[in-house]
Amino acid sequence: MPTSRKQVFDAVVVGSGASGGWACKRLAEAGLKVALLDAGPPQKAENFTEHMAPFQMKYRDMARQVILKTRPIQGQFYECSETTYRWFAHDLDEPFTTYPGKPFIWGGRLRIGGGRTNVWGRLSLRYSDLDFKAASLDGYGVDWPLSYKDLAPYYDIVESYVGIAGQAEGNPVIPDGVFQPPMPMTCAEARFRDGVKAKLGRTITIDRTANLTQPLNGRPACHYCGPCERGCVTRSYFNSSFTTVPDAVKTGNCTYIPNAMAYKVLMDAGPNRARGISYIDRNSREPQEVFGRSVVLCAQTYESLRILLNSATRQYPNGLANSSGILGHYWMDHVAGGGAAGEFPDLQARPNINGPNRPAAFTSRDFATSRTGHAARISSAGTAMKGAVARVSTGMRRDSATPTSSRFIKGLTPYPSQCSVKSLAAGTTLSTSIRRSKTLTAFRSCASMRRTARTKLPCYEMLSTQQPKCWRLPAPGTYAPWSGTFRPVVFATR
User: Residue 469, Cβ neighbours under 10 Å: how many?
Assistant: First the structure.
């Protein structure tokens, strides 16, 4: 029989990450009694190794195969490193299956206090009405029931607490917020920004990042050490394990329950209400129960879906919140990748191994929408331009935009999602030193769309380094439907 806690809480919150930590903080500070279930142990400052050099590590941070023995999925991501891999789920202890022919990599499964806020990229952008009301603009899907005006005051509250460094641009695509001073651009980045604005009319701005540039709530400013994914002993970036969760516990109204793997929502069939959570104690392997007048699932998208599907009852045989039968359908993982690189020969600089290492790139979020076609919004993010090298990488997400160029790329992959890539300049010669995995077909269409010339181009996946290939970069506005399970192309200039 499962062991039950006698206390009935006002709310049971599952997950201590970005949303779970914030829910606990707000509820506890409002005077409600909250139980916080965390799938892992509490995070501690002594776990952070961002100041540790590779030569100080047992395997010099070069033993990827050691990590892959127990985490063959999680270990595919750079954040899962020699000093952090124990934060991630043990893939052999927590396996998952996929449908035949439909592979999926379930990465970023954290089992530590703070969840993904330990390793997140910290890019913090506001949605605009181009997101919330996209269906009204391009005719696809349905609009959100909320508008930007409804959420703007809450964005202000969160940004004032978290601390977001950024530059106000007055661009409606990425609404301005409550910013700390922006992190500075390099000379190459500043030139790139000015050139793109002058010639293309697009905005390049420094990332709006949850790294402090001024002290806030006892947390000092970022000191530009670099590897944020290995923690931050100064607490200069936002991590719920040393911000929202301690604030909630400090009120005396939040009971923190670590190492609690939530299994299902407990239901009261009479009033048809959730009454608590059944979970497994990871240390004793014994089932436990905790009760509350409300249940808040903040266990990360996939984990929350798992809990809802596990919570099937006679009344809800297909799981909770699934009367439509589409729970777990029609969603996709974050897709990011691609890019290009260029050089400014007159901005020569010698490499410096001592940094500073700015934890922010730059971003472009300009796009167009139309009812005549469905494509993807571009979200371009570039790594820091240092010395003579300027690099731009393009992140892709499914959204609403229309390519304006007559040059298209069609990816020959199953289960396509629509993505748009903007190139730096037509005719730029690109090369890669990564393994070929698929084939792209480039289409150049005339104005009447009656004649089409096809050219086979190799497509590459980030798996190994072999003989590089080259081709000419298409004109700006390429259109590429890529599968959400297929990693997009990554380019580098020769």
Answer: 14
Q: What is the largest CA-CA distance in the chain?
A: 75
- Cβ 459 vs Cβ 440: under 8 Å: yes
Closest CA relative to residue 11, chosen from 308, 295, 262: 295
The DSSP letter of residue 67 is H
CA gap 9, 21 in Å, rounded: 16
| Same domain (yes/no): 344, 443 | yes
DSSP string, 1-61: --EEEEEEESEEEE--SHHHHHHHHHHHHTT--EEEE-SSPPP-GGG--TT--GGGSTTTT
Separation CA 46–CA 57 (nearest Å): 15
Same domain, 251 and 214: no
CA pair distance 399, 363, nearest whole angstrom: 17
- Where the chain has pLDDT below 50, the residues are 368-494
SS3 call for 123: strand
pLDDT (tens digit per residue) in 21-65: 999 999 999 999 999 999 999 999 999 999 999 999 999 989 899
pLDDT for res 1: 60
Residue 138: name the closest of 367, 363, 332, 422 by CA.
Answer: 367
Does 350 share its domain with 474?
yes
User: 388-415 burial, b for 16+ CB within 10 Å, e for fewer?
Assistant: ebbbbbbbbbebbbbbebebbbebebee
Residue closest to 409 by CA, chosen among 401, 400, 418: 418
Q: Do 351 and 249 share a structural domain? A: no
Say yes or no: 346 and 277 in one domain. no
Residues 453 and 357 in one domain: yes
Measure the CA–CA gap between 323 and 342, rounded to whole angstroms.
52
pLDDT, tens digit, 9 for 90 and up, residues 274-285: 999 999 999 999
Q: What is the pTM of this model?
A: 0.75
What residue type is assigned to position 180 of the chain?
A: Q
Write down the residue that tokens 């992190």 correspond to. 183
Asked if residue 447 is part of any domain, the answer here is yes
Query: Is the residue at 63 inside a domain?
Result: no
The two structure tokens encoding residue 94 = 């927590």
Q: Are strands 436-445 and 469-472 parallel, antiparallel or unpaired?
A: unpaired
Range of the domain at 290: 3-43+238-310
Contacts of 375-379 with C-beta under 8 Å, sequence gap 24+, read 375/400, 375/401, 375/402, 375/403, 375/418, 375/420, 375/479, 376/401, 376/417, 376/418, 376/419, 376/420, 377/401, 377/420, 378/420, 378/421, 378/422
3-state secondary structure of 419: strand
